[in-house]
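Hey,
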Amino acid sequence: MESAFEGEASEDLQDATVDEAAEGNLSVDQIDAAMRAADKNRKKKSWIYEEDSGVFSEVADYIEDEQYLIEQEKKRQQQEISERFSERVKNFHTNLSENIVSVADSIDSFFINRSITDGRNRTNIRLTNTTNSIEGSGVNNDFDFKLRLRLPHLKRKIQIEFEDDALVNDTTAARDNLTQVGATRNSRQQGGSRGGLSFYQKLLGIETKLTTGLEVRKEVIVFGRFRLSKDFILTPSQKITFIHDVFDDTTDNKGQIGILNYDYTFNKTFLLRFANEETYRDINNTLQTTHGFSLYQQISERNFLSYNYRAEAINPEARSTFYLNSHVVNLSFRRRLYREHLYYETGPGLIFPKLNNFEGLWAFVFRLELIFGNV
């Protein structure tokens, strides 16, 4: 049979009473009196008296001293500050996003004398910071600012829309996290931000788009582009995408890009893409091709993976034969941190360039993307 009591013991009593109680030299009343007389801010002791052995045993230690309470209060205050800061950041993001979309709606209404009532205006601003490193080449950092102004009613009425620098039609890409992971920008698009006006028509089931605008690098460049694109739906799970893009600008950077992709959707979790792309540049009479595949996996609602392989071949100065320039293998992980507005992407890769005798070089990338507006 056991009886127990809890009380407060001073630290001076701690060691002596345990030994004496074990020898049966202290009574229950003596220990109880000593514990009640102890300092209220010292440590609490829990004791159990085992009648069979006549020994008191210490079974718990609850720290309730003044320093502990001070530390707990500091933690509580820090948590409150963190929560208030987080709430202010969320409010700032929400208000700015609403203002961006509101301005786009006002512009759209001004042109066609009506307000947006039948759809979500997908105007947004994207801020992207990409840090990458290749073995032996140090660390590179690239910051990109992109405004996507969408005026859906104006587009419906006169087939004109504001254009950003995206090569592939963004009707689904901007909202498709599964195929966004591991996405790379075409070499033609790197080095500056561009925007302009596009006039589009659909002819014989083929989308045509004529675009002209400005690109900002170290100088302002006028560019023009004509694009043909079509999706061929083979079955509910199979699709072929064809894009042919002809471009020119005031720096005599002219050429064409062809894309032919085949997508096979296994289920909601996996999608397999065979990617083929060719780029011809008139300025140096060079044809470059890229072939490979990507397997996209949706791990959860927030997390995505892609497994990628690409082989690049080049035909410098339009020689009669191509030669393999590099192999690239990489794994990319993409996570949505906040709604559809904050993402990070990271992952390792191996590059096997011809200049390095096809010996592997490790690469690593980390990308942070913040979106204001609607996606």
